[in-house]
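Standup notes
- HV: blocked on the assembly model, inputs below
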Amino acid sequence: MLTFTLRRLSLFLFTMLVLTLISFSLSFLFPGDTVINHSGQINATATELAQLNEAYQMDKSIFTQYRAYLTHILNGDLGQSMASQSPISNEVIELLPATIELSLVALLIAMLIGIPLGFIAAINHNKASDNAILSLAMLGYSIPVFWLGLLAILFFSIGLGWLPSAGNISLLFEIEFVTGIQFIDILLSDSPYKWQAFSNASAHIVLPACVIALAPATIFIRLSRAAMIEVLAASYIRAARSKGLNFKQIIFRHAIRNALIKIIRHVGLQFANLVTLAMVTEVIFSWPGIGRWLIESISQRDYTAIQSGLLVLSCFIFIIHILTDFIYAALNPLARGNSHGS
Amino acid sequence: MAREKIYLEEVFPSPFMQLWGIFRKTPVAMVGFCCFIFLVTLAIFAPIISPYSPVEGHLDMILLPPAWHIDGNVSYLLGTDELGRDMLSRLMYGTSLTFGLSFIVVIFSLVIGVVIGSLSALTRGIKSSFLNHFLDVILSIPSLLLAIIIVAILGPGISNTVWAIAIVFIPQFIHITRYAVKEEFRKDYVLASRLDGAGNFRILYYSVFPNIVERLMSQATLAQSAAILDIATLGFLGLGAQIPLPEWGAILANGLEHFYIAPWTVYLPGLAILFAVVATNLVGEGIRHALKLRKEN
C-alpha cells in the first residue's frame, strides 16, 4: 500500500505540474497581452502594468515566468475576472461547492439506478429483460443532455408544476454561506425555517441531478452488467453452487461484492464525464455552479477566468480520480502491487 | 444448362465479408444501417431536395405549427420558426452540418490516428511508454470538456468546433490502433509473413489492416455518436455554429425563447439529434455483436 501511495502521489504531482503548465501556456495562446491574461487587469495603468510585469517576472526567462506564475497560484491568487474585475479565487470558492453538490447527488442517483439494473440484466443474461434494459440504456445514452433538460423543464416544471426549474433554492430563504454545499449550510444554520429550506433545496436539486444522472446511469448499467457476467462465469461461483448454496445466497454473498469492486474502478472516469454533463445542465437550470460560470466566461472571452476555471475544474476531476483509485486499492488487494500507472 | 465453373472452388470470404454476412442477418442493426445511409444521403443532397432556403424568412408565416396541427400549413411540413424560416429545410441543411461534419471529422481523426497509432505500435521502449502514459491522461478527460477547452482557446465558431472535435478524437484512434496492431503482431500469421521476408510496413498493410478494420469501424461509430452530441452541445451553448447556421444544436438554442408557445422549434431538432445518434449507435452495436459472433465461430 505504501508503494502504491507513493506512486499515486508522484502521478498526482506530475499531473498537477502538467496542468499548471498548460494553464500557464494558455495565457500565451489567448489573444492579447500575456501579463494581462495572467492577471485579468484590463484597465491597468502604466505603473500598475509595470508592477504586474515585475510580479510575473515577464522580462526574465520563460522558466522564471512559470515559477512566478506557480507562486501566484500557490498563494491562492488566480488573477481577476476580466468581466467583473473581482478576484477569481473568491468566485471559485463560491461556485465550485454548488457544482460538487450537484455532481455528487447525480453520481449517487446514477449508481443507485444503474448498478442494480445492470445486475438484473446480467442475471437474466440473453433473456427479454436483459435486452429491454440494454435497449433502454442505449436510448438513454443517445439523448442529448440539453434536450433532456429542456423536456424535463417543459414536462415537470411547466406542465405539471411539480418541481422548480431554476436555481438551487428559493430566494425566500436566506442561508448563510459556510461550506457552500447547500444542504450542509442549511443544516448548520439556526433559522427557524430550516426544514422548509431543506425540502425546498431538495426539490430544486431533483430535476437537474436526474437529467445529469441519465447518461452515466446507462454506462453504469453496461459496466455492472459486464462485471456481473464475468463474475458469474468465474469458478468460485461454480464452487459455491456445488457447495449447495441457493441462487440468492450466491448472488448476495459472493457475486455482488466481487462485481462491485470492478465497478468502483470506473467511477473516477465516469465522474469526469458527469462533471462535463453538469456544466451543460447548469446552464439550462441556471444552477449557480462553476460550469455555467466557465461557459459564460468563454462567451465573454474572459481569458483569465477561462484559464483559472479550467485549472480548478481539471484539478477537481483529477483529485476525484485519485480518490477512487485509493478506494479501489483499499478494497481490492490485487490492485495494489500491479503495473505502472494503469 | 451451361456450367461455367467445372471445378468447385472453395471460397474463403475475407474477415470483413464474414462480418458483413453476420451483420446483415441482424435486423436491428440493418435498420440502424439504413437510417445511417439515409442520413448520409440527406447530408449530401440537402441543398437539392429541401423545399426552401434555410435562412430565408417568410414573414407572413411566422411560428407556424407543423402540418398535422390544426393551424398547420402543408407547404411548411414541420412548421416555421420565429422568423418564418421553414423547419424542414433547416433540419435538412442541419443534417449536413451536424451529421455530415461529424462524419468528416471522424474520418479525418481516424486516418491521422491510424497512421500515428500504427507507427507507434512499431516503436518500443521509452518513447512508447511515454506515449502510453500521455494517452492515458488525455483519454481520461471527457471529449466534450476537451472540446470546450480547445474552443475556448480558438474562439467560438463552427470551423473551430470542427477542429477542436477532430483533435479530441485523434488520441482515441491512436490508442485503439496501437493496441490492435500490437495484438495482431503477436499472432502466428504475422510471423509467417515475416518468415517470407515481408517488412514491417508490408505486414502492416497486407496482413494486419484487413484484420483490424472492423475494430476501427466500431470505434469510429462510438466516436461519431459522441461527435454528433458534442457538435450539437457546443452549438447549443453558443460556442459552436453561430446564427444563422442551421446546426441542430443551434436551432434548438434559437427556439428556446419561444419554447412554450412554439415547442416544435425545440423538440424537432432534439429528435433529429436523437435519431442520428441512435442510428449511429445501432450500427456500432451491430458491428460489435457481429464481431463477437465471428470470434465465437
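- HV (later): unblocked. Residues 194-232 of chain A form the longest helix (39 residues). Chain A has a mean pLDDT of 82.
- Next: hand off to the docking folks.
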